[in-house]
Specification:
single chain, alpha/beta, Alkaline Phosphatase, subunit A, four-stranded antiparallel β-sheet, binds zinc ion
């Protein structure tokens, strides 16, 4: 009897492995394969510019966890954020639409007399469709843990579609270790379910205050920052911390140590996922909402106003179940809005008409893509009160236009990002035809996707205004 059971068990096991192997091999031919119980883990790290990550070429060893994830997954070398600001960029990630479509951004409104007035961040409306809503329909448990005040449900509206949206903390931010405590508690109860889990870490955002436990490396003082200190002394957030060029180097160092801390915490989180034995059926996406200007282009330890690549180039790493396609590097330009179509394509869930991004699975599978890569981004320049309208950028492989429609308060700029990745030489006067071609494409992109209408003005209440003022947003 015992022998019979063993034989039957053996036959079942053999059949299962044959079916599994067959499925795996057909997937290579056809992206329409579904791993039915694949979990989705989306990790977004606030304010993390890609060139401060080892896997993206940074020479300080501060991101061993992210670097390992890049080796086990696919690294997209040129990933572009849709906005250099937290809520609009995350809304683009989660809806696969540009900010001018989802409208989770700073808005202008008209008062009763028809005068144009400035509002603050407009939360996501229900006319948008989010990744959480789509995956919930597909039977996923959906949970989010956010760590920055501008992603709270009240401010961003990004809780749409989540069963759990953990945004309850005091002050502007919650440190990664504190967020992890809650995530671990959640995992303990829910790891057996099929889940979509979004974790947002805020640590690299200014002010840079890494915990004492992070080792201080003295090599930072060798970095030279030969810039005018005067604007920093006028800046209310920086005048108390920067009095010398060495202080600038120190701030960059502290920014790095925040990255190191968040990297350590992600490592601890992935250890928990491994302990529950669910790492091989979890699709992991690691990205950022935007980068940070560390004094470049006269933007000092900040982001949100300008559209230079220090604020737009972000990491994008996708680790597929069982490390499939591990170590691959995709050179083509991709955008934040491509994340949702890519993971749905992998999961064999139909893409939606609303999406403006495309699936990157053809790139993963070395297949031709229909369109030449391009990217669009826009800023919340209205925050600075320096410009009448937004700045926008449209870019193709080598060229990037920063378009200022106003033309008076700000002028358009053109860069060759292949030859000049840090955008030091504005080439618009020498290349007017290229600039004009990119401008036409930019305007066509906007025309083809009209803004969603917003009902009412929904201007912030006094409490929200006060909070925004205290955080320096108004
Ligand atoms: Zn952010």
């Amino acid at each position: 009897m015992k022998k019979k059971i063993i034989v039957v068990f053996f036959i079942i096991a053999l059949c299962c492995s044959i079916i599994f192997l067959k499925d795996r091999s057909t997937f290579k031919e056809n992206t329409n394969h579904s791993f039915g119980n694949t979990n989705v883990l989306l990790i977004t790290i606030d304010t993390l510019r890609s060139d401060h990550i080892g896997a993206y070429g940074y020479n300080r060893n501060i991101t061993p966890t992210i670097d390992k994830l890049a080796k086990e997954g696919i690294r997209f070398k040129h990933a572009i954020a849709q906005a250099p600001y937290t809520a609009p960029s995350h809304a683009s990630i989660l809806t696969s639409t540009y900010p001018f479509v989802h409208n989770t951004r700073n808005m202008f409104f008209q008062d009763s007399s028809g005068k144009k007035i400035e509002g603050v961040n407009y939360p996501l409306t229900h006319t948008n469709l989010t990744l959480a809503e789509i995956l919930k329909e597909e039977g996923y448990d959906t949970s989010a843990f956010v760590s920055g005040w501008t992603l709270t449900a009240k401010f961003s509206g990004l809780h749409q579609g989540f069963d759990v949206y953990e945004d309850n903390f005091d002050g502007e931010e919650r440190k990664a270790d504190k967020t992890n405590v809650l995530v671990k508690q959640w995992l303990e109860k829910n790891y057996r379910k099929k889940f979509f889990l979004w974790i947002h870490y805020f640590d690299p955002h200014f002010p840079y205050s890494p915990p004492e436990s992070i080792k201080i490396d003295s090599s930072f003082s060798e970095v030279k920052f030969d810039i005018d200190l005067m604007p920093l002394k006028k800046n209310p957030y920086l005048r108390d911390v920067i009095n010398s060029h060495e202080d600038i180097a120190k701030q960059v160092h502290l920014y790095d140590m925040e990255i190191k801390f968040v990297d350590q915490q992600i490592g601890k989180l992935l250890d928990v996922i491994k302990e529950y034995n669910i790492i091989d059926n979890t699709l992991i996406i690691l990205t950022a909402d935007h980068g940070e200007s560390l004094t470049e282009h006269k933007e000092y330890f900040d982001h949100g106003t300008y559209l230079y690549d220090v604020c737009l180039k972000i990491p994008l790493i996708i680790k597929f179940p069982n490390n499939q396609w591990q170590g691959k590097v995709v050179d083509s330009m991709v955008q934040s809005i491509d994340i949702v179509p890519t993971l749905l394509d992998f999961l064999n869930i139909p893409l939606r008409r609303e999406f403006q991004g495309v699936s990157l699975m053809p790139m993963v599978l070395n297949k031709e893509t229909a369109n030449a890569p391009y990217a669009y981004s826009e800023s919340d320049a209205v925050l600075s009160k320096r410009f009448g309208e937004r700045l926008r950028t449209y870019r193709v492989k080598d060229w990037k236009l920063i378009y200022a429609s106003d033309g008076v308060l700000a002028e358009s700029e053109l860069y060759n990002t292949t030859e000049d990745p840090y955008e030091t030489k504005n080439l618009i006067d020498e290349n007017k035809e290229i600039a004009e071609r990119l401008k036409e494409k930019l305007l066509l992109t906007i025309k083809n996707h009209p803004e969603k209408k917003i009902e009412g003005t929904n201007l912030p209440d006094e409490e929200t205004k006060e909070k925004l003022k205290s955080l320096g947003y108004l």
